[in-house]
Amino acid sequence: MARATHSSIPAGWREWVCLPEVPVPWIKAKLDTGARTSSLHVFRCEEFTRDGADWVRFDVHPWQESRDDSVTVELPVHDRRRVRSSSGHAEERIVVLMTIRMLERDITAEVTLTNRDAMGFRMLIGRQTLRQGFVVDSARSYLGGKAPKPVRRANRGKG
């Protein structure tokens, strides 16, 4: 069981977070104490073998309803878990280890990869991650500040 190793930092129920190793500078996340594990919305998820180990390759689109700033990521598979969604649907998910920068603190988190297209947030931060020194204030949002608007690349597919 993860224990807080630092003094607790207040966080809003939603925060902009960074995935520095991926690299994704900004992604909107819901902090959910009802969820055990963190999850990330991914596209084109495929497993492969590298040097005899299981790896996964996937795309992250950090901005809702936009492919701008899309990132292709390759990480070792940490685990596989059966996860039940908030709608009651159970699925087996790939788990990877990721560094998450939230409220100016870097933490290592187990993150499941899934399709969160129907959800309002590309990322969900669960209580295992929050136990690393965060307390959620459900009445507040974006205590770490807001991300800048996405930069639209010029002439993308338009003539």
Output the strand order for the largest sheet.
2-3-11-4-10-9-8
Please give the domain count: 1
Helix and strand sequence: EEEEEEEEEEEHE
Q: Which fold name fills CATH's third level, the topology? A: Cathepsin D, subunit A, domain 1
What is the architecture at the second tier of CATH?
Beta Barrel
Residue runs with pLDDT of under 50 for 5 or more positions: 152-159
Tertiary shape: globular
Superfamily (CATH H level) name: Acid Proteases
Number of helices, counting only DSSP H or I runs of 4 residues or more: 1
Rounded mean pLDDT score: 86
How much of the sequence lies in strands comes to over 45%
Question: What is the CATH class?
Answer: Mainly Beta
Major sheet details: 7 strands, mixed
Please specify the SSE layout and strand pairing:
Blueprint: E1 9-12, E2 14-19, E3 24-31, E4 38-41, E5 43-50, E6 53-60, E7 71-76, E8 79-84, E9 90-102, E10 105-114, E11 123-125, H1 127-130, E12 134-137
Parallel strand pairs: 1-12, 3-11, 4-10
Antiparallel strand pairs: 2-3, 4-11, 5-6, 6-7, 8-9, 9-10
Protein name: Retropepsin-like aspartic endopeptidase domain-containing protein
InterPro entries: Asp_endopeptidase (IPR008503), Peptidase_aspartic_dom_sf (IPR021109)
Pfam families: Zn_protease
